[in-house]
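User: Could you go from structure to sequence for me? I need the amino acid at each position, not a summary. Structure tokens:
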């Protein structure tokens, strides 16, 4: 039988002898697989972006609007991700990351004093999809 390198020599305390050769082989394989698994986990996730601008009925930007992006059912009949939310900035712009892939999403925009609006968008893999909203003021509401 071939002599094992010092690193792979084990002593079984119960039996007083060497551990079986298969145990050393299994440990070597596990140690070799660990860096590959760690590298796989470090790879960045690809994503798509649903972006746009929210305007008031007058054409001015609408900052502070709440945007909710909800995935619609996939062809398999199940949802693959949870809803994502964001807020429009001072220029009324927003950008929300979603997982890359072919998927339909419902984009809903809500702002105090304005009627909510919804649109459906189709995302293909890692593309950026633009969507624009013009919200109507609620009658008698403060802006």
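Assistant: Here is the amino acid at each position, in order:
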């Amino acid at each position: 039988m071939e002599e094992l390198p010092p690193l792979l020599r084990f002593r079984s305390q119960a039996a007083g002898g060497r551990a079986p050769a298969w145990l050393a082989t299994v440990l070597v394989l596990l140690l070799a697989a660990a860096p590959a698994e760690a590298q796989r986990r470090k790879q960045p996730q690809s994503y798509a972006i649903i972006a746009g601008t929210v305007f008031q009925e007058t054409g001015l930007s609408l900052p502070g609007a709440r945007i909710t992006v909800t995935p619609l059912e996939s062809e398999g009949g199940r949802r693959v991700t949870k809803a994502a939310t964001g807020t429009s900035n001072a220029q009324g712009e927003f950008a929300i990351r979603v997982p890359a892939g072919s998927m339909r999403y419902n984009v809903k925009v809500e702002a105090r004093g304005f009627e909510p609006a919804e649109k459906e968008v189709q995302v293909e893999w890692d593309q950026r999809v633009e969507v624009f909203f013009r919200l109507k003021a609620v009658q008698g509401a403060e802006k």
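One structural detail worth keeping in mind: The mean pLDDT is 83.
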